[in-house]
Automatic annotation (TrEMBL):
<dbReference type="InterPro" id="IPR004843">
    <property type="entry name" value="Calcineurin-like_PHP"/>
</dbReference>
<protein>
    <recommendedName>
        <fullName>Calcineurin-like phosphoesterase domain-containing protein</fullName>
    </recommendedName>
</protein>
<feature type="region of interest" description="Disordered">
    <location>
        <begin position="1"/>
        <end position="24"/>
    </location>
</feature>
<dbReference type="GO" id="GO:0016787">
    <property type="term" value="F:hydrolase activity"/>
</dbReference>
<feature type="region of interest" description="Disordered">
    <location>
        <begin position="494"/>
        <end position="513"/>
    </location>
</feature>
<dbReference type="InterPro" id="IPR029052">
    <property type="entry name" value="Metallo-depent_PP-like"/>
</dbReference>
<feature type="domain" description="Calcineurin-like phosphoesterase">
    <location>
        <begin position="96"/>
        <end position="176"/>
    </location>
</feature>
<dbReference type="Pfam" id="PF00149">
    <property type="entry name" value="Metallophos"/>
</dbReference>
<feature type="compositionally biased region" description="Polar residues">
    <location>
        <begin position="8"/>
        <end position="17"/>
    </location>
</feature>
Length: 513
């Protein structure tokens, strides 16, 4: 495990200044040099992209077949021979790893994460991708350019838990790359949960070019230290000081009964545990407990004091959030970590928090920066920049007024001036909630707009990108989680800003784990 990297660069982080947030870049990011000669245009408005990702709509309308498919995959893995309990063992009590989520668009926003990630975590022992390794449909053919190439210089192994997009090809690409399983787990005569309609609509996976994947692995991640085969789509990494549990939540955010029994089994015992999941259990000030087929929820397992979970980290939502939730006499850190490369989900639409005290809540980007960025996007799209565009300072003031909170970044205003009517109008139109609720008026689509349009609107190729990743350091006594910002600015790549940090004790006062 390496030395301390808690200090932020000279510009600080976004909580300290606009420069720390990346609004004024002094040098371009070196990630431009990493890009392929031709960066493929990625747009959710393209009919082919929509058609390739149609399984999300089919699953939500007619039922999610992920549980049935997963059972067949796990049976194939078990028949082949897989570690007991789907567990990988590490002997060191002290170790570090990187965690990033929702990575694989293959464009500038994904590559912008790579230099700061390597600089902050080149000495870590392994990396985990939490959700949506490949967009739009998890195809095996996309892995060379959206997985192997971007992370070719990361020296350790990479593990993953699948997200809903990885499931759109029946998880075939994911299982081939991470589990070395080439089987198609769809039943030969599968008709879908409700019969003929989903059978006709469901997109079956394309062919896997094993030679091309082998070439990409050999060319980009062929070093022995980079090779790893995980036991399955769900797994544990067991160490003397911490058990890391990764679960597969399919398309709609549930787990099957077999995985539920496995999760209860690996969650037993006094060893501290960290959950990694494709969908977060706390997000946007709401609880998403993750139902288990046959009864119960993942959140109930995490909250049970007999299981000794200290944190639960999920991808799927493309920003960073942290909720320190008190459960009985302990605190569980619920974290959202989906800022690894895909378009940014807004944070300014998050209401004043009720799950935890607002002062204890953390998010990145800050709500004011999120509002400022979206105001510029809408000003450009609607060709009304004079109306919509808010500076970060104007946006921060509007958020302060609408939510009734003290923003994380102070401008030294003392008694903060009331924002302009224009700023308040834009904040209302772009979805900043009012403290205490109140009657909803006209709002432009920011949060509830279908992803195929929202992602196009919220994707941009110029700093600040507002992406992020986690570095997690573990000793026998504590677990330390740090969120590092990715702005895309060259002066913030070598020493990326640390936006949030929390240290969690792994031993009780008596010294027992």
């Amino acid at each position: 495990m390496s030395g301390d990297r808690s200090a932020s660069p000279a510009s600080g982080n976004s909580r300290q200044s606009e420069a720390g947030a990346g609004w004024s870049c002094r040098t371009p990011g070196s990630f431009e040099d990493l890009l392929p000669e031709r960066v493929p245009a990625f747009s959710w408005r393209r009919p082919l992209v929509l058609w390739r990702s149609r399984n999300d709509v089919v699953a939500h309308l007619f039922g999610d077949p992920s549980n049935a498919i997963r059972r067949r995959c796990v049976a194939a893995l078990t028949e082949r021979g897989t570690p007991a309990g789907f567990t990988m063992h590490r002997q060191a009590a002290e170790f570090s790893f990187l965690l990033t989520g929702d990575t694989g668009e293959g464009d500038r926003s994904q590559y912008a994460v790579v230099p700061p990630l390597l600089n902050a975590g080149a000495d870590t022992d392994f990396m985990v991708i939490a959700s949506d390794v490949i967009y739009p449909a998890g195809d095996a053919a996309d892995y060379p350019e959206k997985f192997f190439r971007p992370y070719r210089d990361y020296p350790g192994p990479i593990y993953a838990v699948p997200g809903n997009h990885d499931w759109y090809d029946g998880l075939r690409g994911f299982l081939h790359v991470f589990c070395d399983l080439t089987a198609d787990c769809l039943p030969d005569r599968w008709q879908g949960p409700l019969g003929l309609v989903p059978r006709l609509l469901w997109r079956r996976p394309g062919a896997v070019d094993e030679a091309e994947l082998a070439r990409a692995r050999r060319e980009h991640r062929g070093a022995p230290a980079q090779r790893a085969t995980q036991p399955g789509p769900y797994w544990t990494i067991d160490t003397p000081s911490l058990r890391i549990v990764g679960i597969d939540t399919g398309i709609t955010g549930t787990i099957d009964a077999d995985q539920g029994r496995w999760l209860r089994g690996v969650s037993a015992g006094p060893k501290p545990k960290l959950l990694i999941t494709g969908k977060p259990l706390r997000v946007d000030d709401r609880v998403r407990p993750c139902p288990i087929e046959g009864g119960g929820t993942v959140d109930e397992i995490v909250a049970d004091p007999a299981h000794h979970y200290v944190a639960a980290i999920g991808g799927d939502i493309h920003n960073y959030q942290r909720y320190p939730v008190r459960v009985g006499d302990r605190v569980i850190q619920y974290v959202v970590a989906g800022g690894g490369g895909a378009f940014m989900h807004a944070t300014h639409t998050i209401p004043r928090t009720r799950l935890v005290d607002e002062d204890a809540f953390r998010c990145y980007p800050l709500r004011g920066d999120s509002l400022s960025r979206y105001s510029r996007l809408y000003g450009r799209v609607l060709r009304l920049p004079g109306l919509f565009e808010l500076t970060p300072r104007e946006a921060t003031a509007a958020v302060r007024h609408r939510l009734g909170i003290t923003p994380a970044r102070s401008y030294g205003d003392g008694e903060a001036p009331r924002p302009s009517r224009r700023a308040l109008l834009v904040a209302a139109l772009l979805g900043v909630p009012r403290a205490g609720g109140g009657r909803r008026r006209l709002r432009l689509p920011v949060k509830r707009l279908p992803q195929r349009f929202r992602s196009e609107l919220a994707d941009w190729d110029r700093p600040p990108f507002f992406k992020s990743f986690l570095r997690i350091d573990v000793t026998g006594a504590e677990l330390r989680i740090r969120c590092f910002a990715v702005t895309g600015c060259g002066d913030q790549e070598t020493d990326p800003p640390c936006e949030d940090e929390v240290t969690i004790p792994l031993r009780s006062p008596s010294g027992d784990t």
